[in-house]
Each structure stands twice: as structure tokens, then as C-alpha cells.
Amino acid sequence: LMSISDLTAAEFTKLVLNASAHKAAVKAALGAGEAPPLTVQGALAGRTVAMMFSKRSTRTRVSTEAAVAMLGGHPMFLGKDDIQLGVNESLYDTSVVISSMTSCMVARVGPHSDVANLAAHSSVPVINALSDDFHPLQTIADFQTIHEAFTSARAGASSLGLEGLKVAWVGDSNNVLFDLATACVKMGVDISVASPTGYGIPDVMKRVILAAGTGITRPGKLMETTVPEEAVKDADVLVTDTWVSMGQEAEAQKRLQSFAGFQITNELAARGGAKPGWKFMHCLPRHAEEVSDEVFYGPKSLVFGEAENRLWAAVSALEGFVVNKGKIL
Ligand code: CP
Ligand code: NVA
């Protein structure tokens, strides 16, 4: 799983619905003082998942380790000082060796080509745990969160029922956005992106996002602007992320200046005309400049449920790609 583009609309839908089903079943069992259901328990028994992280992580690390443990496997965390991930050893050698001893590699890298190279030479499934270009596990959790907030009551068992919803992304065009936008196009969700001039979606990425609409009856529309108010007009969900992603620290000062006026606030939502029931999402970690405390900790915020859903997204992805070997059932 390198990016959401790897998935058909049906596969993506199933991963999201499976995440929700596992959440409900495991929580019900634990709440009743019982063991997690057998579909989860033991599915990865005797298997090791290598977690190769060259960048910091709270949610991706904890959710993946917890998910592997929940499925009965052994998560092996390998930080950037633990192994020779592209340092002192080629990615080819690393991939061949680690995949010969484990059942899956979950990798967080800088350049997307690093995780793609690992996948190209691996004999086991590789899951992208965030690269400079994509963050598919986040997108699965985000759609689970949107589905819970907007449609889970009326959706049929095999569809998310989100067509026509509008997401407004206000902030940097980054890895989290690229997979989120791809999923929006695939799921018929319109997405409007407001970024300052010079920080919009690169053309190559736009082609990736729009290609997600191929063969979809009602693909989501992608709109772009440099005016935050235009993006939030009639939006159901307002989303942002940090203005300074990992690896961009040297540009921090310049970025903070360029993004002035792009903070998500209640005033921006009102001025721009977001829908009255709008919700706020953020993949976290959050910094105060991109969203006000009032929104982030307020009643419209879904952020902590969204973070928890990372666990269920990880369970679903491991089940789909490792237990079921890429057959998303
Ligand atoms: N959202 C997310 O991926 O968070 P971490 O960087 O803490 O894993
Ligand atoms: N865009 C952020 C996401 C972190 C989860 C980054 O790449 O640092």
C-alpha cells in the first residue's frame, strides 16, 4: 500500500468499512469484559511486522504497534538509528533481508522513492507509513471519521454514501492532502483546496489525484484557490495540517509568513460560508498557527476520534494486506 491510488474505489470502501466493523466488534467485546473477536485475535499469530521509521511518529507508531499486537503478531520497531535504512546499506539489500525474516514492512520515509524501492524488492507486503508524497493510513482513518460523522446511519453495507459532501482543505498542499484528495475524487466527495501562491498542488500530483476519477460515475471535483474563504464556502468538513512538514524545518520561518491568514477559525468558517454543521479535522500533530484553539478543542472538532481511528485503519490495512495478502475482502 503505497498510496490511495493503489486501491480501487471498492477496495478503499471495504478498508474503511472493515476498520469500522473491527472498531465496533472489539469495543463491544472489551466493554463486555470479553476477548476481542476471533477475526482479529490471532490473525497475525507467529508473524512479525517490521516498522521502519526514519522520522518521528506518535499516532502511526502507536496505532501500528497496537494493531499488530491486537492481531496477535509481533511489531518490531526499527528507528532511524537502529537499522541501516538507506544509510550504509542500499534499500535493495535492506528490503531483501528484512522481508526474508518478517511478514510485512511498514515504513516511514522521506522521499517517496524510498518506500517504493523497499516495496519493489520486498517479498512481503509493504505499507507506506508516510512519505513526503502520501499518507494512505491517515486517509483510511479520515474517511472512517467522515463516514461516522456524516453517513454511517444511512449508508448501505457496501458503500460509504458520501457523494456530494464537500471537504475544504485550507493550508499546505502536502502528503496528507494528496491521499485525502485522491480518496475524495474516488468517493465522489468534492474537495476545495486553498493554499498560498507557490504552495499549491504540483501538476504531477494533480494528475495523480484526478486519475482517481477514471471509471467513477460521479467523481469528486477538485477545486483550487489561494483564497481560504472561497474554499470553505458550503463545506461540510474543514481540514488542515501543519504548515511545516517533517523535513521542511529549514523553511519554517518563510512558511509561517507565507501562510499568514490561512489559520482555520470560527470567523473564517462564518465569513466564507461553511455549512452550519461543519466539522473540523486534522491528522495531528497540530500547531497553533494552522487552527485556533477554539476550533481545535471545540464542539465541531473530530480530531481525537480521527486519531483513534488510526488504530482501526491499521487493523484493517494489516488484515487486508498481510492476513488476506492484498485481497481486500
Ligand atoms: N498523523 C500522523 O501520522 O501522526 P504521527 O506523525 O504522530 O504518526
Ligand atoms: N504533513 C505532515 C504530516 C505528519 C503526520 C508531515 O509530513 O510532517
Automatic annotation (TrEMBL):
Give the reaction(s) catalysed. carbamoyl phosphate + L-ornithine = L-citrulline + phosphate + H(+)
Matching entries from PROSITE patterns are given as: CARBAMOYLTRANSFERASE (PS00097)
Q: Which Pfam families match?
A: OTCace, OTCace_N
Q: Which GO terms describe its cellular component?
A: mitochondrion
Pathway per its UniProt entry is: Amino-acid biosynthesis; L-arginine biosynthesis; L-arginine from L-ornithine and carbamoyl phosphate: step 1/3
- The record places domain Aspartate/ornithine carbamoyltransferase carbamoyl-P binding at 1-148
Q: Which GO terms describe its biological process?
A: citrulline biosynthetic process; L-arginine biosynthetic process via ornithine
**GO MF terms on file?**
amino acid binding; ornithine carbamoyltransferase activity
Q: What is its EC number?
A: 2.1.3.3
Which enzyme class? Answer: transferase
Q: InterPro entries this protein is in?
A: Asp/Orn_carbamoyltranf_P-bd, Asp/Orn_carbamoylTrfase, Asp/Orn_carbamoylTrfase_sf, Asp_carbamoyltransf_Asp/Orn-bd, Orn/put_carbamltrans
Keywords, in A-Z order: Amino-acid biosynthesis, Arginine biosynthesis, Transferase
The entry's family comment says:
Belongs to the aspartate/ornithine carbamoyltransferase superfamily. OTCase family.
Self-association and partners:
Homotrimer.
Protein name according to UniProt: Ornithine carbamoyltransferase, mitochondrial
Origin organism of this chain? Answer: Cercophora scortea
